[in-house]
Amino acid sequence: MTGEPTNTPTCDADCTAVECGDGHHNPAAGEWCDDGNQIDTDECRNNCTTCGDGDIHPGEECDDGNDVDDDACSNECIKPRLVFVTSLDFTADLGGLAGADTKCAAAGMTANPNLPATAWRAWLSDDTGSPSTRFDTTFTGWYRLVDGTPIAKGWADLIDGNLAAPINGTENAAAPGQPLLAWSNTTTAGMKAGPDHCNNWDSAGFDPVGRFGNVTATNTDWTDVSDADKNPDNCSNNFHLYCFQNTP
């Protein structure tokens, strides 16, 4: 007797050549799954790997082998990105968007010293740019505070007007000091809210003015406080900055 046909690294048990997508799961050939379709976003990818098996395959940033979505590896095998509000506060003379990014990068060394300075972006808008033009809007993993608190899953969730938790933790995973406000001039959609950006974030004068968000809010006030009697305010105020990890 020759026994039952078995899978080999080059041949399926039915004696056909190994081919990912043929619907025959062949572990001997390194296939973790094979659902026989060409849908790359379902549980079995088109390279016959699956997120959640505990092994990191091509195209995966991580794989922790569990189905907890908002931990250190999402159910799509994407690492979370950090977000925090700076422990320091600043007048609106930030040196423009680039200067604000530099301040986020400096604080980011505490949040995660393994990330390069270029990984960080300030949530800030003026005539030269906004998060909608400067951020990775294709990101679909979790944004989390330094202490691990989930804030939003991906860019689409971040800009839907409702955060899972307020961005009220600093780069030190501590509560920020008063005032609990952050320079922004940014709409919920990540776009420029208007002309109130303290001369492109380069003025600390009493006039002009700048718009801001409330770090205790989870509704749209997190990025643009809706109280017209208070927002905008003078550029001489000292407010915090929201800082986002923009690259892996």
TrEMBL record:
Keyword terms of this UniProt record: Disulfide bond, Repeat, Signal
Family annotation (InterPro entries): C-type_lectin-like/link_sf, CTDL_fold, Myxo_disulph_rpt
SUPFAM superfamilies to which the protein is assigned, alphabetical: C-type lectin-like
Lineage top rank: taxon: Bacteria
The protein's name in its UniProt record: Myxococcus cysteine-rich repeat-containing protein
UniProt organism field: Nannocystis radixulma
